[in-house]
Amino acid sequence: MGIVTSATEPTGPSEPADPYPDAHHPVATPATVLPAPHESFDDPAPRLIATDLDGTLLRDDKTVSPRTTAALAAAEAAGIEVFFVTGRPARWMGVVSDHLASHGMGIVGNGAAVFDLRSGTLIEAFPLPESDALAVAHALREAVPGTAFAVERTALFRREPGYEALEPDDPGACAPIDVLLAEDRAHPILKLLAKHPSIDPDDFLATALAVAGPHAEITRSSETALLEISGAGVSKATTLAKCCAERGVTADEVVAFGDMPNDLAMLSWAGTSYAVANAHPRVLAATVFHTASNEEDGVAQVIERIVAARRR
User: Fold this and answer.
1) 3-state DSSP call for residue 220?
2) Of 1, 81, 203, 266, which residue is 20 to 30 A from 108 by alpha carbon distance?
3) Biased composition, Polar residues: where in the chain (predicted)?
């Protein structure tokens, strides 16, 4: 399924100051969230923590709080591996670069690639075939006129003129989607991005699934009308499951955290899953366990309880 390389892929320029400036604020956040009833970390004991970043582990200013940093380190010290599982590309993973400790593995692009974040090495990629990307782009543009596209490859980002640049050092390499997909074939396509200026985000996703669902995995993680499109069958869950199998870790031994629709597959697969209090309503409805918001270090609160259970 994947393509493997031992070469080090350049991770490109550093991330913009806030790549998701208006994302991850779908619901009001309660002041305090108590531990969910019947929470247990004894049988089986967690061996791996998988956490989303934006809106989940990261605070709204895109920082990792001191409490979260300490909790991640405590988990590693207790023998629990940590995976960052995100929709971000590898070139935007600098936000956690100072907090890697031994947890340097990242599943990026909603499962499209696995990177060793310490070395910047691409371990494995699960690309979106060019033919499927083209079929999705044509179907979606016909169904929702005004949609603009961008292409995220293993080491390159290219966009159409109508797709707003997110990075201050954007080189301005713009072309129609047919041209973007035909160029740079030496670098596999990790994600096709589709953006619309005015449509309701949930309606945009529903339309895309209806007209192009068989060609790709389509999801979203932004509060704007921005769709993230990966290869069919590729998700945070599928790649996390593969990485866990390679380590002899079962789903029941995984604790996962998320906040947006692109986290749903991962949260469903993991044996124990938490939605942060600021999560999308669909994510809150789909998870048994809830924790405090990203602003209140909700992920850290649960990790602290996991570590405390290990010490008993």
Assistant:
1) coil
2) 203
3) 1-11
Placement of tokens 């990485």 in the chain: 243
Per DSSP, what are the bridge partners of residue 149? Answer: 194
List pLDDT tens digits, range 5-49: 323 333 333 444 343 443 444 443 444 454 545 677 877 899 999
Q: Has domain 130-230 been given CATH number 3.90.1300.10? A: no
Its CATH architecture, for the domain 44-125+235-311, is: 3-Layer(aba) Sandwich (3.40)
Structure tokens at 141: 């543009």
Angle (CA) 106 112 114, round 5°: 30
The domain locations on the chain are 44-125+235-311, 130-230
CA angle, residues 58, 64, 66, in degrees to nearest 5: 140
The whole-angstrom separation of Cα 80 and Cα 147 is 43
Look at residues 94, 90, 54, 114 and name the one whose alpha carbon lies nearest to residue 236.
Answer: 114
Return the amino acid letter for 89: P
Strand bridging mode 3-4 / 105-108: unpaired
Q: pLDDT digit string (tens) for 157-194?
A: 999 999 987 665 565 568 999 999 999 999 999 999 99
Whether pTM exceeds 0.90: no
Task: Please report where in the chains the tokens 């019947």 appear, as a residue.
Answer: 38
